[in-house]
Automatic annotation (TrEMBL):
Keywords: FAD, Flavoprotein, Monooxygenase, Oxidoreductase
One Pfam family in the UniProt entry: FAD_binding_3
Cofactor: FAD
SUPFAM superfamilies, sorted: FAD/NAD(P)-binding domain
Annotated InterPro entries: FAD-bd, FAD/NAD-bd_sf, Ubi_Hdrlase_CS, UbiH/COQ6, UbiH/COQ6_monooxygenase
Pathway named in the protein's UniProt entry: Cofactor biosynthesis; ubiquinone biosynthesis
Name this polypeptide is given: UbiH/UbiF family hydroxylase
Superkingdom: Bacteria
Family statement drawn from the similarity comment of this UniProt entry: Belongs to the UbiH/COQ6 family.
Gene3D superfamilies, per database record: FAD/NAD(P)-binding domain (3.50.50.60)
Length: 386
């Protein structure tokens, strides 16, 4: 059986589902194909995969009707951020400096995913094919045809690859990538602390990587310790008490004693540049289009903006063919700079704080402290991050 669509989105992670939601009320016929059954809500348990969502993207998700579905007791706020270098450098950002309520909102992956999917299900006019996976694709002049593993065929004027860093669809389209593994993993885990975090996100640039403590509701924090593979393996293998001790000590016991509430998990880190974000009848969004080092917590934030910009281009195109290459190039032009800048900044910071000789260590720490003292530069950085 062949079904016809204007837009078929392959991948229903946070980014693909946000695009589907942004297109849901339009006359466009939209399908979303997701390979995995969505994870059930975690109930009382906390998800170790946490995102720092920027105010801009919180606003986007509010406009789309997803944010209002988040349980209030699972949302954490960042009002201040304290960054420490490995030789005494410090940098302090505050939402107050730029007249904002917060620098970011901390939310669990599964909670956010459930909210977006439930908003999507209520709209009812996006065809959700889940669990389903494509096994073949044909690129035609007028349409692309996606053949699913269960034998269904979808004919669509535009395919959107939102299927993550290893994107199957990007590979099928032959879009080249350059990928640099960081030879690091992001080790994530959640803890309860004996002292209140005060809504402060803390980050340490250490000799063995970058450690971030993000405030969750209550006296809880979520950590991301981006560190070389051997150290990551060591951390993941530690018994709970020893892991608590290692994390508390690495953060100078700023929040007192820690108690592990979700086991540690590790995610390999890599930098991915794609040769192009679009080709005829195809657009790439989210991790299918780029990956960045998580030290600035910006990966999914970039992806949400991809979804917003692509939706704006498609909705603004009236009756024009959504798979038209020249139309898709508008999306590419609008996103290139943002993505490249974030990749350059996060990659540069990672390189700068890798162990090096003493003069460089001094310089990078002096740079942090100097930035802290330069009000206009600091405010510019905060606005960029927001
Ligand atoms: C340790 C760590 C910490 C991070 N912290 C942050 C943070 O604080 N803030 C932030 O902004 N970002 C953060 N990121 C980045 C963030 O995790 C990613 O950018 C984000 O998950 C990308 O979302 P996505 O929807 O593009 O891709 P994914 O989350 O990878 O979703 C892809 C979806 O496609 C589906 N899929 C895959 N292949 C197929 C197929 N062939 N057919 C059908 N479906 C398919 C998958 O099942 C999945 O649901 C972090 C990353 C790491 C590693």
């Amino acid at each position: 059986m062949t079904q016809e669509f204007d837009i078929a989105i392959c991948g229903g992670g946070l980014v693909g589902a946000t695009l589907a939601l942004a297109l849901a009320d339009s006359p466009l016929r939209v399908a979303m194909i997701e390979g995995r059954q969505p994870a059930p809500p975690t109930g009382e348990a906390w998800d170790s995969r946490i995102y720092a969502v920027s105010p801009r993207n919180r606003h986007l998700l509010q406009q789309l009707g997803a944010w209002q579905r988040l349980p209030l007791d699972r949302i954490g706020n960042v009002q201040d951020m304290r960054v420490r270098g490995d030789a005494g450098g410090t940098l302090h950002f505050s939402a107050v400096d730029v007249g904002s309520d917060e620098l970011a909102t901390i939310i669990e992956n599964s909670t956010l995913q459930t909210a977006i999917w439930s908003a999507l299900a209520d709209r009812g006019n996006v065809s959700l094919l889940c669990p389903a996976r494509p096994q073949g694709v044909e690129w035609g002049q007028q349409a692309a045809t996606l053949i699913l593993e269960d034998g269904q065929t979808l004919k669509t004027r535009l395919l959107v690859a939102a299927d993550g860093a290893e994107s199957w669809l990007r590979q099928q389209a032959g879009i080249g990538i350059s990928q640099a593994p960081y030879e690091q993993q992001g080790v994530v885990a959640n803890f309860e602390c004996s002292r209140p975090h005060g809504f402060v996100a803390r980050q340490w640039f250490r000799q063995d990587g970058v450690l971030a403590w993000l405030p969750l509701p209550g006296n809880r924090i979520s950590i991301v310790w981006s560190t070389h593979d051997a150290k990551a393996a060591e951390l993941k293998a530690l018994p709970a008490d020893a892991l608590c001790e290692a994390v508390a000590a690495a953060g100078g016991r700023e929040l007192g004693e820690l108690r592990l509430i979700t086991p540690a998990a590790g995610f390999p880190l890599r930098l991915t540049h794609v040769k192009s974000l679009v080709s005829p009848r195809l657009a790439l969004i989210g991790d299918a289009a780029h990956t960045v080092h998580p030290l600035a917590g910006q990966g999914v934030n970039l992806g949400f903006q991809d979804a917003r910009v692509l939706a704006d281009v498609l909705l603004g195109a009236g009756r024009r063919d959504p798979g038209d290459y020249l139309l898709l190039r508008r999306y590419e032009r609008a996103r290139r700079e943002d993505v490249m800048m974030m990749q350059a900044v996060t990659h540069g910071l990672d390189r700068l704080f890798r162990p090096q000789q003493a003069p460089i260590a001094w310089l990078r720490n002096a740079g942090l402290t100097l930035t802290d003292k330069m009000g206009p530069l600091k405010r510019l950085l905060i606005r960029q991050a927001l």
